[in-house]
Design brief:
single chain, 2 domains, about 100 residues, alpha+beta
Length: about 100
């Protein structure tokens, strides 16, 4: 835990030295590891600018959802849902195009 606090202090100093500000409201952290290692960790509180940074189990990075146990299950589920919606839309368009116009009925 001490290493994390030192790391956060270093990040804060670097941001200040380079005239940058981190949006704490949009900043989250995730700890990656195996099931056993993650569950055995004590609660972790990170602070920067006297504000607490929230911990999450799943994060989106460059459009990819990554679980703290290095699982892409949630990302794959999201992609399959989007693909299913797209396929349904295409199938509906095809079925509408294959119907004869109302005036021909």
């Amino acid at each position: 835990m001490l290493t994390l606090r030192i790391g956060m202090a270093t990040v804060g100093e670097w941001l200040h030295a380079n005239c940058l500000i981190l949006n704490i409201d949009k900043t989250k952290f995730v700890i990656f590891g195996s099931d056993n290692k993650i569950w055995n960790l004590p609660p972790c509180n990170l602070t920067l600018y006297r504000s607490e940074i929230g911990q999450v189990q799943v994060m989106k990075y460059l459009g990819v959802y990554i679980h703290n146990m290095i699982s892409f299950d949630q990302h794959i589920e999201l992609l399959s849902d989007k693909a299913s919606q797209g396929a349904n839309c295409v199938l509906w368009e095809i079925s509408e195009e294959s119907k004869p116009p109302i005036w021909m009925s």
